[in-house]
Amino acid sequence: MPPAPGDREARREDVSQAVWHVLADKGFGGLTLRAVAAAMGVSTGMLMHYFPTKRALIAHALDLLEKRTAERPRRERPAEGLATVRAMLLDILPLTPGDTARNRIWVSSWDLALADDALGADQADRYTRLRSTIRPHLEEARDHGELPATADPDRLAATAVAFTHGLVVQALFDPGRFSEDVQTAMLDDFLASISGPA
Asked: With contact defined as beta carbons under 8 Å apart, do 141 and 85 qualify?
């Protein structure tokens, strides 16, 4: 018997917490209806009232991950231009245990996105949105002389995201080599490399 509407809403947070617990523990590779049901202490059949297929569960998990990423604490945006770009990119890097866990989950989702056209399109949209949030600050940096006058903000936004996510992957696989201080220094070196004379 399907849950009543009120019960359904009351259990939604429980379901989301269980999904997040499984993701944090096992990544997307371990995200199954059985694992989430076990985390909730319910039957797989009950959980299927919420997610009739594994794909529905994965779509919910990706929505939940995006929501938690958007709601995480952010660094202050200290000034226009490159200072804000720096803060935004630092917010992406795995510099804290929470950021590391979130990045591990994101990276584990890429295999699914590459194998599913719809999920892949959603991931491409996420990257488009990320680049679009960085672009105006690069434009401001160019207008304030922090970047060469010929700098292309669209290309630099794509380069910044590619650099940052490449650093994320290296830090996840080799955290001893890519400590918080090393990641921060590498980001600062990257920003210095794209800067022009004041």
From this structure: yes
